[in-house]
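Minutes, project huddle
Topic: does the predicted pose make sense with NAI bound?
PN asked that the exact inputs be recorded in the minutes so nobody has to dig through chat later. Recorded below.
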Amino acid sequence: MDFKDKVALVTGGSRGIGRAIAERLAKDGAAIVLADVADSVKTTASEIAKQYNVKAVGVTGSVANEQDVKNLFKIISDEFGQLDICVNNAGISINSLTMRTSADDFDKVINVNLRSVFLVGKEAQLIMMKKKYGRIINISSIVGIRGNAGQPGYSASKAGVIGLTKTMAAEVAKRNITVNAVAPGFIETSMTKELDDKVKERYMEMIPLGKYGEVADVAEAVAFFASDRAKYITGQVLVVDGGMMLT
Ligand code: NAI
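Predicted holo structure (C-alpha cells), as shared on screen:
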C-alpha cells in the first residue's frame, strides 16, 4: 500500500493498537500526527520518525476536550496543511456492572470513546473537504455489537461509534471522504492486561482461532480502509476478532 504524500492522524497513538496503526501507515510512507493525553506521545512520534524515515509529530491533549481538539487541528494545518487519513483510536474502559457504575464514570467513558470521534471527525471532515479526499477510520469493538456484562459505558460508546460512522459516511460521501469502523475482539494490549486471569481464560474459550489478536491484526484492517483498495467501501464495520462473534 502506498501512503506517500499522505498525512495520517492517529489518536491514542502513544502505545498499543494506536502505535501499531501509526507504524503500519508510516511503513508505507505516511507522515504521522499522534494525539494522546500521555506525554510519551512525543517520544513515540520521534521513534516512528527515525525508524520509518517520515515526518512524525506528537501532540499532547485530550481528544474529549473541544479546545484541545481545536489546538490539535491548528498544529495539523500549520505543520502539514492537509489531512488525508484520520484514525479515531483513543479509548478507555471502566469495567463494572451497570448497577455499580457511577454516572461520572459512565460519562467519562462516553466522552473519551464517543464524543472524541464526533469532535475529531468533525474537524477532520472540514480539512478533508478542501482536498476532496479523506479516509476516516473509527475503532469500535465487538462489544459495541454484542454488548458485554460489566461494560455499560464502554459497550454503549462503541455502539455509538458505529452509528456515528454510518451517519458521517452518508454525510461526506459526495466529498470523496469514506468513513468506516474496525471492531476488534480481544487484542493483547495494556487495556486487556488489566483483566484478571479467569476472565481472560473465559475469553480464550470464546475465540475459534484459539489465540488473542495482535495489535498488527487491527493495524492491517485500518491500513486496508486507508488505502485505495477500499476506495468504494464506506459506512462499514470490519470485525477483527478471530471468530469471537461466531460463538
Ligand atoms: P491502550 O490503553 O493501550 O491505549 C489507549 C491510548 O489512548 C493510550 O495511549 C491512552 O493514553 C490514550 N488515551 C486515553 N484517553 C485519551 C484521551 N482523552 N485523549 C487522547 N488519548 C487518550 O488501549 P488499546 O488496547 O491500544 O486500545 C486502543 C483502542 O482499541 C481503544 O479505542 C479500545 O477501546 C479499542 N479496542 C481495544 C481492544 C483490545 O482488546 N485491546 C478490543 C476492542 C477495541
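Observations noted during the meeting:
- Strands lie at 7-11, 31-36, 56-60, 85-88, 134-139, 177-184, 237-240.
- The pocket of NAI is lined by residues 11-12, 14-18, 35-38, 62-64, 89-92, 112, 139, 141, 184, 186-187, 189-192 (CB under 6 Å).
No decisions taken; revisit at the next huddle.
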